[in-house]
Write a structure and sequence with these properties.
Layout (H helix, E strand, L loop, with lengths): L2 H11 L4 H15 L8 H14 L5 H17 L2 H15 L4 H17 L7 H17 L4 H18 L7 H8 L8 H17 L2 H16 L4 H18 L7 H11 L5 H17 L8 H12 L8 H4 L9 H8 L9 H18 L4 H14 L6 H18 L3 H5 L8 H18 L8 H17 L8 H13 L5 H16 L10 H12 L4 H18 L14 H13 L5 H18 L7 H13 L4 H13 L7 H14 L5 H18 L5 H8 L11 H17 L6 H12 L6 H17 L6 H13 L10 H17 L4 H14 L3 H17 L8 H7 L6 H17 L1 H14 L4 H15 L3 H7 L3 H10 L6 H17 L1 H11 L5 H12 L10 H12 L7 H17 L8 H10 L8 E6 L2 E6 L2 H17 L6 H11 L4 H17 L1 H6 L1 H13 L8 H22 L8 H12 L1 H20 L9
Antiparallel strand pairs: 1-2
Helix pairs in contact: 1-2, 1-3, 2-4, 3-4, 3-5, 4-6, 5-6, 5-7, 6-8, 7-8, 7-9, 8-10, 10-12, 11-12, 12-14, 13-14, 14-18, 15-18, 18-20, 19-20, 19-22, 20-23, 23-25, 25-27, 26-27, 27-29, 28-29, 29-31, 30-31, 30-32, 31-33, 32-33, 32-34, 33-35, 35-37, 37-39, 38-39, 39-41, 40-41, 41-43, ...
């Protein structure tokens, strides 16, 4: 903006007309907010002078605008002008004119909020100028000046606390006396300012304030001072609780004493302080939890002015007696009764205890649960809500974690609370039943919230209580005064209840539920209609369940449900979400009741077709049609099939992934259930769109495409466009990513092709097709990945399974090719294919087979050796009696080939132990295998020992009762190699799935893990690996052993000088640390404990060892940086207490310079180390209040001032923010 325009505006600002002044100030404000504005020094001075003058304008509106101008102005002008603004505002703050004081304090707050935190000298200078003046203002006698000064100081300390460190003593001298002020408002604002100050002050200043408060509480004081001091302690704890931990014991003694005084307000503050301590000092408060819980239980029932017993007799009708209440209200007023605040604080404190101390869950169900249920009758609505929320916290803590639903063995899961909750359900329902019909909407909402959480924690819990709950549900859904949220909560609970119980439970209540839900479907508010349609869909499943036989007559309700949904489906103006729900609901109605609605199908199926053609509703329609097509009622879809299949084919070309996936599922379902209703030509229109989907870039889509093609080949083989499909499938087979389910789908597809017996797709043609990639490898770009040989071999075996007569001839031909010794790659393919065929067929008739495979053990190529080993094991699976003795004999006879033969044996054990039939074959041979394996436990070669250990572990799973004791016995061996093999083998008995061996392992795993005390380092290392495996896969095995195992684990994290030796390499001496592998295993185990069982670990002790690892070897540092980042997320409060000890080693790493003559790898290593360290720093910096730590803020300043570190830090922060969205930011491979 040109200077003459500014001059023009400034001129208008001096006008006598207030409108001119207002408009000119407004224009200036607009200009200042533009990035393009540049002011020269003279203009700056004039603008600043004018804005400050306008702050004293007679017109209030002009004053307000002038204050708003200060924000953008501070950023635009130079530092000396900002200082002028601040000085002027500070001077006006102590002015005699009240209006000027007010406007100046608002101005100062605006300036503070706009000051850039990144500037080098501006913020410190401004803070310096303001602080002294504010400290003086606080000591003034004028209360309004004091209040404003305290407010501004709080803002200043919360934003720039670390910049004010030099002035902390001055500020403290001004603040502390104000805690004794006569005015409550002054005391409150002093508390806020003090708590902000103590987050960033030095330890000595912090302790001085705390000592002042504690000494003050010990001396007899007036009540208001005691209240203030307790409030101050609570506020300090909320802001900087991690530093209060050392004083908690002394504080709690005083709180227990003061909470017994006859002063409701004091009791409230004591309970609020306890709540703050529980949340901010979780470790230090542990010894005081029982006394806090006792205190809360005492005060949650504290209601001296009300007799609940008089209410108990007629709780059900008490809400209808408003007239009587009016009469009583004249005699007694609640206005003087403060006891509700005490009860509310007690309930909130209990909620904090429950939320943070999950390990006391059983104790809570014994003591807290009955007490809270008894208090559901609380008369004060807000207190009642807090009591409900405390109970909801208890239910949330009981809810099995997501992992526990898959793994009944997670570390945290305790079955006790579940059974105790089960016993208390009748009491909960009895207490809630009358409350569900109260007039208070908030109470009813809390009831539904609690009941939903109860169902989450204990599915099916309300089966016997539906009769008691129905009146309450009816009341909330039919009451005209119910709010929208009330209805949505009620419907949401009904939906949850319908999903989690047996359908028969609701059949007596269908008569009542259907009209209620139908009314809600037609509610004008779309959110209620959406929720109601969801309930209606569940109701359809309950009224006519397809998976359970019931005698309930559902037919009277069908027209009502159908017409209600049809109306919504047809309605053109409804909300998008309602449309989608209506489509899903109609899909469910047709799927579950289509046999009764035959006459209506001609009406509603074309509607689906319409919705299918609409881009907005097509995905929902595909899902609904899938439901109908999969229904056992086999609803007649012939009216729309001719249109649906080509439409679905066109969807396969769309970019929308979810649409592709669902369209493929629907096509597959239609082919399986309705192929007799359409001709192959129609299906071909969809199949010809499939080839582009058969790509490794999206294996899930490829997998579903293969499932669809397999069904098509089985039901309508003539519809296949195989000349387009097979090249794509072969490209997929060559992909290294094709494994697991996708590979199995490919095998089934090839088998379906052979079964279809199509003229141009014979067994021989497919065999040639599958062998071609191996034979044609010489062509450029045709080199196969190692995984592709396995895939091709499995495909050949899969098609051979369909033509058993070809098994032996093919195997014989491949064996002949092996003997001809073509290329190594072809050899690998032949061996793997013989193995896969031999897995399913007995090849013992080919006499030279075992010897021929054995000869391949002598090949030069490691790949050929591995393939031969795999093949021998796989062939033995097909005929155990013939080949197993051969393998065992050769292990004994050929020491040089032992490693490969042991791998063959491992293949036999692994394959046969997967199925029941395989186990029956394997069990008779177990003694001979076991004996042979035990002979090689002390083998000199480590690789062979590891395979022996794996085989032993897998055999123990086959016969645990018999073999586990033998392993225990072998643990007493004098040979370190034997002990190493035995402890290693235990790792292979632990799986993340439930196993028959688990109860036995639980009893004896301690004996194996106590090998952590073994004098031999190698044994200790494998014991750590086994411990890690147990914690990762089945934490319950070691949960109770942690107190004994953790000290041994921690001792292995220390550097042991006796394991460090010097090796001379020519003229140089090189240090070798034999303990490094053990330390790595120990830290990996600690990392796993982080993820699985931190609640059983003393976190402070744990942090000590992590911090020691930050100064260890490169590999250990990398691990502990990961752990630091994870700990910052999992237990920020504890990390905050030890922040200095984390920052120093991280700083040392980041500032370390690599020697000038170092090799390139050394630079790369150091860079990676810095990057990892900075990730840990970013995680530490993200902890709330961490930025107030002096060590960390200095380190961050150093990072920002070092260009190399700054660039690295920014990229790390960017990565972290991206990863936090995908929730995979800080994870470690646990395989």
């Amino acid at each position: 903006m040109a200077s003459y325009q500014i001059a023009n505006l400034l001129d208008k600002m001096t006008s006598n007309d207030k409108d001119f002044r207002f408009m000119a100030t407004n224009d200036l404000m607009t200009e200042l907010q533009k990035d393009s504005i540049k002011l020269d020094d003279e203009s700056e001075k004039k603008v600043v002078r004018m804005v400050l003058r306008l702050l004293e304008d007679k017109n209030g509106e002009v004053q307000n605008l002038a204050v708003k101008c200060l924000g953008p102005l501070v950023i635009k002008v130079k530092e000396n002008q900002v200082e002028t603004i601040v000085d002027s505002l500070c001077a006006n703050m102590v002015s005699n004119k009240e209006q000027l004081r007010d406007i100046s304090s608002i101005g100062l707050k605006t300036v503070i909020s706009e000051l850039p935190q990144t500037s080098n000298s501006l913020a410190p200078n401004v803070c310096q100028r303001i602080t002294g003046k504010l400290s003086n203002a606080i000591e003034k006698e004028d209360v309004s000046v004091q209040l404003e000064a305290l407010d501004i100081l709080s803002d200043l300390l919360s934003r720039f606390g670390d910049l004010l460190v030099p002035f902390h003593d001055t500020i403290l001298k001004a603040l502390v006396p104000q805690l004794g002020s006569q005015r409550q408002a002054v005391r409150k604002r002093t508390i806020v300012a003090l708590s902000h100050l103590l987050t960033s002050c030095s330890n000595s200043a912090y302790n001085k304030v705390i000592e002042h408060l504690l000494e003050g509480l010990k001396k007899p004081q007036n009540t208001s001072t005691i209240r203030t001091y307790i409030q101050c302690l609570a506020s300090i704890c909320r802001q900087a609780g991690h530093r209060l931990c050392n004083h908690i014991d002394r504080v709690m003694v005083l709180l227990n004493e003061y909470s017994q005084r006859e002063d409701d307000e004091l009791r409230e503050f004591c309970l609020q302080a306890c709540e703050a301590f529980i949340q901010r000092c979780p470790e230090a408060i542990v010894p005081h939890i029982p006394s806090i819980v006792a205190l809360c239980l005492d005060y949650v029932t504290y209601d001296p002015n009300y007799n609940y017993e008089a209410d108990d007799g007629d709780a059900g009708v008490s809400m209808d007696t408003e007239e009587e209440e009016d009469v009583d209200s004249e005699e007694y007023s609640d206005d003087d009764d403060m006891s509700w605040k005490v009860r509310r604080s007690a309930a909130k404190c209990l909620e904090s205890v429950i939320s943070t101390r999950h390990e006391l869950l059983e104790e809570f169900y014994r003591t807290l649960s009955p007490a809270l249920i008894a208090r559901f009758k609380e008369r004060e609505e807000n207190v009642k809500s807090d009591i409900f929320h405390a109970y909801i916290a208890l239910l949330k803590a009981t809810r099995p974690s997501e992992d526990a639903t898959h793994d009944p063995d997670s570390m945290e899961q305790v079955p006790g609370p579940i059974s105790m909750l089960q016993d208390q359900v009748p009491e909960i329902v009895r207490a809630i039943q009358p409350l569900m019909r109260e007039k208070s909407v908030k109470t009813r909402q809390d009831c539904f919230l609690l009941l939903r959480e109860l169902l989450n924690a204990l599915p099916g819990a309300l089966a016997k209580h539906v009769d008691q709950l129905m009146p309450g549900i009816n009341y909330s859904l039919s009451d005209k005064n119910s709010t929208s949220n009330m209805k949505i909560d009620a419907l949401s609970f009904v939906c949850c209840m319908l999903q989690g119980h047996n359908p028969q439970v609701f059949h007596p209540h269908i008569q009542l539920l259907v009209p209620l839900v139908e009314n809600a479907v037609f509610d004008p508010f779309y959110k209620i209609a959406t929720e109601a349609l969801l309930v209606l869909q569940q109701l359809v499943k309950v009224i006519r369940p397809l998976n359970v036989e019931t005698s309930f007559d559902f037919t009277p309700f069908v027209p009502q449900l159908y017409n209600c949904t049809l109306q919504k489906l047809r309605s053109p103006e409804v909300d998008q979400e309602v449309k989608e729900r209506a489509i899903a609901c109609m899909g469910q109605i047709i799927a579950n009741m289509g046999d009764v609605l035959r006459t209506e199908l001609t009406t509603c199926l074309p509607l689906f077709m319409e919705r299918l053609r609409n881009e907005v509703t097509r995905l929902s329609s595909v899902k609904a049609l899938t439901m109908i097509a999969a229904s056992p009622l086999r609803v007649n879809l012939s009216p729309i099939l001719a249109d649906v299949i080509p439409t679905l084919g066109s969807f396969l070309r769309k970019n929308q992934r979810a649409l592709k996936l669902n369209s493929l599922t629907l096509l597959d379902t239609l082919v399986i259930n309705y192929s007799q209703f359409f001709n192959p030509e129609l299906l071909k229109t969809a199949i010809q769109e499939v080839p582009p989907l058969l790509s490794e870039s999206d294996l899930h889509v490829a997998q579903l495409s293969l499932v669809f093609l397999t069904s098509a080949a089985q039901q309508q083989p003539q519809a296949g466009v195989y000349e387009a499909i097979l090249p794509e499938v072969m490209t997929l087979v060559r992909s290294p990513l094709l494994q697991g389910t996708a590979l199995n789908c490919t095998l089934r597809f090839f088998q379906a092709l052979v079964q279809a017996n199509l003229p141009r797709l014979s067994y021989n043609y497919l065999l040639e097709l599958l062998m071609a990639p191996v034979i044609n490898q010489q062509a450029p770009g045709q080199v196969l990945h190692k995984q592709a040989y396995h895939s091709l071999a499995k495909c050949v075996a899969a098609i051979t399974l369909q033509v058993p007569a070809q098994a032996e001839p093919v195997a014989a031909q491949l064996l002949h090719d092996i003997q001809e010794r073509k290329s190594d790659t072809y050899l690998v393919f032949c061996l793997l294919t013989i193995g896969e065929i031999g897995r399913h067929f007995n090849l013992s008739s080919i006499e030279m087979l075992p010897q021929c495979i054995l000869n391949c053990f002598a090949a030069q190529s490691e790949d050929v050796k591995a393939a031969a080993s795999h093949a021998l094991g796989a062939v033995a699976v097909g005929n155990l009696n013939c080949y197993l003795p051969f393998i065992l004999t050769e292990i004994e006879a050929q020491p040089k080939r032992q490693y490969l033969l042991l791998h063959s044996l491992k293949e036999v054990i692994s394959s046969l132990s997967l199925t029941k039939g395989g186990l029956e074959q394997l069990i008779p041979s177990v003694p001979s295998i076991w004996t042979q394996l035990f002979k090689h436990c002390e083998c000199s070669e480590e690789g062979s020992r590891n395979v022996v250990a794996e085989c032993l572990g897998k055999l123990v799973l086959v016969l645990p009762d018999e073999l586990l004791p033998r392993l225990q016995q072998a643990l007493k061996s004098d040979s370190p190699l034997m002990r190493t093999a035995v402890v290693s083998s235990i790792k292979f008995t632990i799986s993340d799935q439930p196993q028959p061996i688990d109860p036995l392992l639980r009893q004896c795993i301690g004996q194996f893990l106590y090998a952590l005390q073994d004098p031999e380092p190698a044994v200790r290392r494998v014991a750590l690996v086994a411990f890690n495996s147990a914690v990762h896969n089945k934490p319950s095995l070691v949960r109770d052993l942690l107190p004994e195992l953790l000290p041994q684990l921690y001792s292995e994290t220390k550097i042991k000088k006796e394991l460090i030796r010097e090796v001379e390499m020519g003229p140089f001496k090189h240090t070798v640390d034999d303990g490094l592998d053990i330390r790595k295993a120990a830290f990996e185990c600690m990392y796993t404990l982080l993820e699985q069982g931190l609640d059983r670990v003393d976190i402070m002790q744990f942090l000590e060892h992590v911090q020691a690892g930050l100064k260890d070897h490169y590999d250990i540092k990398m691990l502990t940086y990961l752990m630091t980042a994870r700990l910052a997320q999992l237990c920020p409060t504890a990390v905050l207490q030890r922040l200095d000890q984390f920052v120093d080693p991280l700083r040392a790493t980041c500032t370390l310079k690599v020697k000038a003559n170092s090799v390139k790898q050394e630079y790369e290593k150091q860079d990676e180390l810095k990057r990892s360290a900075l990730r840990a720093v970013a995680a530490l910096a993200s902890i709330p209040k961490a930025d107030k730590n002096q060590h960390l803020s200095e380190f961050l300043t150093l990072i920002r001032g070092t260009p190399d570190l700054q660039t690295l830090f920014e990229s790390v922060q960017k990565d972290t923010s991206v990863n936090s969205n995908t929730d995979s930011g800080i994870s470690m491979d646990q395989s």
